[in-house]
Amino acid sequence: MDCHHLKSEDKNIRDLEEIKEYKNRLKEMSNIRWDRVEEIKKAINNGKYHIDSRQIARKMLEVLD
Predict the structure, then answer these.
(1) What is the number of alpha carbons within 13 Å of residue 40 lying toward its C-beta?
(2) What are phi and psi of 15, to 5 degrees?
(3) Distance between CA 49 and CA 18 in Å, rounded?
(4) Three-state secondary structure call for residue 47
(5) pLDDT score, position 33
(6) Rounded distance, CA 48 to CA 29, Å?
(7) Contact in structure between 32 and 26 (CB atoms under 8 Å)
């Protein structure tokens, strides 16, 4: 195995650990609607989740006001 491959593997492991940490933090948050999260995940996996960019832009502008 070459050195570059090992560095890439180390980075992947660190990334996975970071993702696990964030996932654990999210689980601790009580205001997350996990049923909705699962629903959206299923829609994404089925290719049925579509993002309305105009709605996102409106919400972003609301936050800035």
Answers:
(1) 8
(2) -60, -45
(3) 26
(4) coil
(5) 86
(6) 27
(7) yes
d(CA 27, CA 51): 25
Question: What pLDDT does 58 receive?
Answer: 94
What is the tens place of the pLDDT at every residue in 1-51? 556 666 778 888 899 999 999 988 887 877 888 899 899 999 999 999 999
- E runs forming strands in 3-64: none
Sequence-separated (6 or more) residues with CB below 8 Å from residue 49: 40, 43
Tens of pLDDT, residue by residue over 40-60, are 999 999 999 999 999 999 999
What residues does each domain of the chain span? 1-32, 33-65
CA torsion sign for 28, 30, 35, 40 is: negative
At 34, the amino acid letter reads W
